[in-house]
# Entry
Amino acid sequence: MRVRLGWKLGLTYLVLIILSLAVSGYFTMDFFERSFLDERKAALFTHASILANSAAPYLRSEEQNPYLHYLAREYGERVGNRFLILNKSGRVIADSADEFTGRLLKHSEIRAALNGENAAGPHLEPEYGWVLYLAVPVSSGKQVIGAVFMAADINPLVDRLDEIRKSLLWFSVLSGAVVFLISLFLGTFLTRPIKRLIHATGRIASGDYGFQVRDIKRDDELGELTRVFNEMSAKIKEEDNVRKQFIADASHELRSPVAAVKALLESWPEKGKPGEEEIAELINDLRFETDKLGWLVEDLLVLSRIEGNCRQLNLEETSVGELTEAVRKTVMPVARNKGIDVETVHEGDVYWHLDGEKMFRALYNLVDNAVKYSHPSGKVTLGFQVQDETLMFYVTNTGEGIPAHEIPHIFKRFYRVDKARSRKTGGWGLGLAIVKEIVELHRGRIQVDSEPGQQTVFTVKLPSVAPNLTNS
Ligand SMILES: Nc1ncnc2c1ncn2[C@@H]1O[C@H](COP(=O)(O)OP(=O)(O)O)[C@@H](O)[C@H]1O
Ligand SMILES: [Mg+2]
# Structure
């Protein structure tokens, strides 16, 4: 059975209040019982002692003494209690009610008194109800020669205690009920936002990304949880949109080279024998289109690998000098064709903890762009330096540059500033998206400064030992 949080809370408080009331009730009752009874006992002991003192001179002989009868009755009437005077063997010598004379009594209080001690204790007698038995020794010098025994009706006292007990019980039941109701209410108050969150989580699980929990007025942890939940939900929606857009863009981009290949083949002369020149031209065109297709598929694969379940880095102490040199060598043939010189700039070499393969791809993409978007005979520089525990790469090129309002967009997938031009140069707008992913995997940052018509600088900053980068 599922017990709701509110009920659990209510029951817990109920148990706690019952326990504390029971403990405090027990001690309160104990205190009342003691103080009522002690007060009564003190008064009765005084009476019994007075009688014991008066009886002492007459109790020396073992025989009955008529004066003791008189004393007991007289005193009993005056005080309003029944008194018995016993000799040292516990036999009744005188009884104010004249009932037990001559009998041997063995009450524990009498035995204690004959041993020289005052003793008293409540007893429940079937005939009289609650009775307090009380006995004091009768002494002559240091010797106990008998005892005065008395019984007092304490029924009114017990009734009063019963009344107190009953009111205490009522008080407990009432406060228990109030606490239970309050905590039940508190429970529902606490669980309402949790229920809303359960509902919202269900909506997200069933595909309603971006679902928001309204009405967050609370300032406590539950309010905080709800706010964080809403943020998470919005983020999931955003991610989902990016994913959908990516699939749409990717299929759109894949369609154009495929359509180009198809068009080339369809326009192939149906009649007549093609000349050698025509065949060579067709093969050239086909190679160009399939190459482009190959790059796109390659870029898509790299992106999906970086973003998918391979979000790990293969960290190694890497020579940064060798890394930049390798990048330079790889782009050199293309650069040379455009009459562009690629120069590496650094002071000595540095070893850095990074994923060499991924960083090579990032730098290659940056330098490739620098070459592509430079005017012929332009100049491209790839440099690095260490500053404040940070490794800084910079890639600069002369050329048209990037308009300031385009800079926030260039790292988006499939984003190209000049669509027509970069299509011609073979770009798909995925290069910088890949660079950004790789740099962020290294907990680094990338920054662009561009002066249109002058030069463009891409700066990558990598922290030395990123705290949660593990070599996995
Ligand atoms: N060095 C640069 N100079 C001028 N524009 C650049 C430079 N690097 C990138 N860009 C712009 O950013 C866009 C995105 O770059 P990228 O993601 O590498 O795509 P691609 O190179 O495939 O076009 C490019 O289309 C280009 O317009
Ligand atoms: Mg590029």
Notes: Residues 365, 368-369, 427, 431 surround magnesium ion (ligand 2) (CB under 6 Å).
